[in-house]
Amino acid sequence: MYTVRVEADFAAAHFLSRYHGKCEKLHGHNYRVRLWARGGGLDGGGILVDFAVLKDALRRVCASLDHTNLNDNPDFSGDPSAERIARHVFEETAKLLPGDAAALLFAVDVYETPTSMARYER
C-alpha cells in the first residue's frame, strides 16, 4: 500500500457556542491541513496520484476558508470544530478531484495548533 500527503494552510476565526471555556469567544487560528491519499497501484510512471492535482484541489478549498469567520459557513452547523472542518475539507476536496484521484482520498488532518489536530477519514 502506498500513501502520499500534501499540505496547505489558512487563517480563520471561529467560536464554539456549545463549548464552555475560552474557545466560546471569537478567536482565530492559523490552520495547517494535511490531505492523505493511499492505494495499492501505481501508474506507468510509478505515481499513485499527482501531487500537483492534490495540492491544487486542497489549496482551492483552503482559500475558500481563508480569512473568514467559519461560523458563517452553514456546513459547520454553527460550531466549526476542528472535526467538522476536517470533514468539510475532505468532502469539498473530493468534489474537485477527478474520480480516480478522489477515490484514493483517505484522510484529512486539521491542526488548530502544532500540537492539536482532528482527523476525518473515509
Looking across the biggest beta sheet, what order are the strands in?
Answer: 1-2-3-4
Question: Any idea what the shape is?
Answer: elongated
The value of Rg in angstroms is 15 Å
Biggest sheet layout: 4 strands, antiparallel
CATH uppermost class: Alpha Beta
Mean pLDDT, to the nearest integer, reads 95
N-to-C CA distance: 16 Å
Strand percentage lies at 25-35%
* DSSP E strands, number: 4
The assigned CATH architecture is 2-Layer Sandwich
CATH topology: Tetrahydropterin Synthase, Chain A
Report the structural category: alpha+beta
In CATH, the homologous superfamily goes by the name 6-pyruvoyl tetrahydropterin synthase/QueD
Give the % helix. 25-40%
Count of alpha and pi helical runs: 3
Descriptive terms for the model:
alpha+beta; Tetrahydropterin Synthase, Chain A; 4-stranded antiparallel beta sheet; 122 residues
Structure notes:
With about 120 residues, this protein is of the alpha+beta class. It has helices spanning about 50-65, 80-95, 100; strands at about 1-15, 25-40, 105-115, 115-120. Helix 1 (about 50-65) crosses helix 2 (about 80-95). The longest helix is centred in the middle third of the chain and has 15 residues, at about 50-65.
